Amino acid sequence: MDRLPDSVAAPLAEPAHRRLCTDCGISRSSDPHRCGRACQFIEPDYAALERRVHGRTRDPARADETHFGPLRRMLQASLRRPLPGAQWSGITTRIAERLLETGAVDAVLTMGSDPADRWRPVPVLVTKAEDMAACRGMRMGYAPLLSLLEPARAAGHKRLAVIGIPCQVYALRALEAELGFEKLYVIGTPCSDNTTTERFHEFLALLTERPETITYLEFRADYHVEIRFADGSQRSVPFLQLPLSQLPSDFFPLTCRTCVDYTNVLADLTVGYMGGRGEQWLLVRNQRGEELVSLLGDELVATTPGSAGKRAGPVRGFLANVERAAGGLPLRRMPDWLRPIVGWLMPKVGPRGLEFARARVEMKAVETVIHLRREAPRRMRHMVPDHVWPLVAPYGLAPQAHETRAGSRPEHAHGVNHS
Q: Where are the domains of the chain?
């Protein structure tokens, strides 16, 4: 395993206790009370932050902004020469390297792996381009990324790039004005579900008798999970054959089951895979995002994302299962003989490309409403932004009067056409 960059800050302060918390790192800072105005799970104001970051809020009249947030353009892309050890081709890592190589930033705040556990994320401040190699790949677990904002400032770093997941980026943007950085680039990665590193090891143990030999795991847009092993062998497992029904009901915390920002809408550039159909999916959101993409020059091979299939059926099926699970009923299980057939069909007839990404965003919105109504109904009006309701309206979910901040149903939740 690549060594961690020399600029790891340690030790981290203990986190303050919060009922709904993914440990973004703010509670470990010198002023943990800032969580009250920075946390995505307390009273988020996406519209205000979208205007501050992008100059405008999402526009329902613009294609896909209701689902994916403000954007200038989307790309399906890969590096001409993929980076070894990267999760996909390594676009995020390469952009960070270029920021450091060109002197555009003093440091990159991102995640490395704990030396004792490849899956446990550790926040790092990287100041040398060659050290980004140690940050490639996937981790799973709560990651106090923003705990290093104060050390970065204390070290004299005035121009910073941050690579983070949505709950981290929301808090960063909420506090951006008071952080005092001269320049801030934000590269966001999509996130829909997280769990503790310990719980993730439980999941790996369900996949193989030797989970310690797994070196790579990725959920792909072709409805398969790719698993690589230390001996160089690989497995491709259809989603439907994953042992998800064997996981405990609290495997994913309430925060992740009620996250409304899968696509990381407050990043300058979102780099994911859901809309990429085998390549990476880039959402360029503002001028800084354009600058980030331009750093790659002809290293990047890019096309326009495609879309195929229909999402309505899969989302309705997901809704039914979430309602059963939230009500304490067992999930409807597909007969074992049918799983290989459906697993073969889904990559061919199910939603693909951008339609797959739209389906995933709607599933997260559905999950948010159902789980909050059951487990924290008083949080509905605070945690569910107005832009979520049009996403769930086609599936028969509408806000009650007490579930919106205005105390009434949002006008734009009516008359939504499902395409």
A: 26-194+254-305, 196-240, 307-419
